[in-house]
Design a protein that fits this description.
This protein has about 400 residues and is of the alpha/beta class. It folds into 2 domains: about 220 residues, Rossmann fold (3-Layer(aba) Sandwich), CATH 3.40.50; about 170 residues, Glycogen Phosphorylase B (Rossmann fold, 3-Layer(aba) Sandwich), CATH 3.40.50. The chain contains 18 helices and 14 strands. A 7-stranded parallel sheet has the order 3-2-1-4-5-6-7, sandwiched between helices. It has a 7-stranded parallel sheet with strand order 10-11-9-8-12-13-14, with helices on both faces. The longest helix is centred in the N-terminal third of the chain and has 20 residues. It is globular, with a radius of gyration of 23 Å. The model has no long low-confidence stretch (mean pLDDT about 95). Pfam families: Glycos_transf_N (PF04413). Belongs to the glycosyltransferase group 1 family. One of its GO terms (biological process) is lipopolysaccharide core region biosynthetic process. One of its GO terms (molecular function) is Kdo transferase activity. Its EC number is 2.4.99.12.
Length: about 400
């Protein structure tokens, strides 16, 4: 099985290199991986112990970030290495100032794992949520370097729990982790069922992150002026299928104001969105407090402010639910409002929990979106009840970061 795994990594790496001239993300990851060792070699210092945090992409970074920031605050004696698998994480967070070193994770070969770990010599390692790289895990185990999986979720259909050759091979990796910090009871049950007992139900560290955002949220005067005395819907991280439904509602409800923050903020995509809107619209980067007041729609064509914009919303729509899965619902939930999203949300524990509590609402088409938007925007009493329930839900789930740090650094 080792040989098959190595072969799959080899062919994947070849595919990345061959695609690099034609695919932006493939080019970024190919170039970034080539620079990792030289970059670390020139910068790494061993005057302090190193904590290594690895995230697949931007979403996992939001779960790893509270751990990084808590280590920085509570254990300043550590330097921090942050690695990414995906360009969508690295390219956005490559200048994150609370990590000492930030780079791509080289392909998971035995040689790369040995070289990276020898170079970094981490004292403690955190992999976030879904990251299972055989050679890195194996090399850390051989060197007795403690490895922790944080904000993890396990499901019955994962390879670890199948009695196939691949399943049994993957399952062996689980025994190399020092501790699993999981989000839910099902994950605890599944791990216990295959003999893994070093499991702590800690929850999702993103709750701690969004609570910090809410405490330090920026005021956005342009959004205040847009909203005025009107109801405001904030649609975050939208894709084309989300926008097609929203635009139908926007056109039929000119009295309601909208902020749309598309997932892709490149000029061509923003111009496409503007072309579809037959109503007064302006981009954030072009708006003034005066010019925004007579517009119905504000398009956020920049990054880094969406989480602060949610606090002005009477209702939030979270994009991605008509694709591979919804984006971050907690950024909106922390401010206490109804949340609407597309049908592909079942892999997200926080979303399924909110649906069961009656504070989030999945839609499947324009008819269901129109119905739920009308119901929620016309019922102040219901929105106030949802706000209270959201606050209770988010407060109940705080504290995962501290549970993890207490266990790791007081072992």
């Amino acid at each position: 099985m080792n040989a098959l795994y190595n072969l799959s990594i080899f062919f994947y790496s070849i595919l990345i290199r061959l695609s690099a001239p034609f695919n932006i993300k493939a080019g970024q990851i190919s170039k970034g991986r080539k620079l990792t060792f030289a970059d670390l070699q020139s910068k790494i210092k061993h005057d302090k112990p190193i904590a290594w945090v690895h995230c697949a992409s931007l979403g996992e970074f939001e779960q790893g970030r509270p751990i990084i920031e808590a280590i920085r605050k509570q254990h300043p004696e550590y330097r921090i290495l942050l690695t990414f698998f995906s360009p969508s994480g690295y390219e956005i967070r490559k200048n994150y100032d609370l990590a000492d070193y930030i780079c791509y994770l080289p392909a998971d070969t035995k040689k790369n794992a040995e070289r990276l770990i020898e170079l970094v010599r981490p004292e403690v390692v955190f992999f976030v949520k879904y990251e299972f790289w055989f050679h890195y895990i194996n090399e850390l185990k051989k060197r007795n370097i403690p490895l922790y999986l944080v904000s993890a979720i396990f499901r019955e259909n994962q390879l670890f729990f199948k009695n196939t050759l691949w399943g049994k091979w993957y399952r062996k990796m689980l025994f190399s982790f020092e501790q699993f910090f999981v989000q839910d009871d099902q994950s605890v049950r599944l791990l216990h069922g295959v003999g893994i007992k070093n499991v702590t139900k800690a929850g999702d560290t993103r709750f701690d992150r969004v609570a910090e955002i809410a405490r330090n949220g920026k005021n956005i005067p342009l959004v205040e002026k847009l909203k005025g005395n009107s109801l405001l819907v904030v649609a975050g991280s939208t894709w084309k299928p989300d926008e097609e439904l929203l635009i139908q509602y926007i056109h039929s409800h000119p009295e309601t104001k909208f902020v749309i923050a598309p997932h892709e903020t490149k000029k061509a995509n923003v111009e496409r969105l503007i072309s579809l809107l037959k109503t007064p619209v302006i981009c954030y980067t072009e708006a003034t407090e005066e010019s925004v007041m007579n517009k119905q729609v504000l398009i956020v064509d920049t990054i880094g402010i969406l989480s602060s914009i949610y606090k002005y919303a009477d209702l939030a729509y979270i994009g991605g639910g008509f694709g591979v899965g919804i984006h971050n619902t907690l950024e909106a939930a922390i401010f206490g409002m109804p949340i609407v999203f597309g049908p592909n949300y079942l892999k997200f524990n926080e979303a399924t929990s909110m649906v069961k509590l009656g504070i989030a609402f999945p839609v499947t088409d324009s008819t269901s979106l129109n119905l739920i938007f009308d119901q929620l925007l016309s019922d102040n009493q219901k929105r106030n009840w949802i706000a209270r329930e959201c606050t209770g839900f988010t407060n109940h789930n705080l504290g995962a970061t501290q549970i993890i740090l207490n266990k790791v650094f007081n072992r």
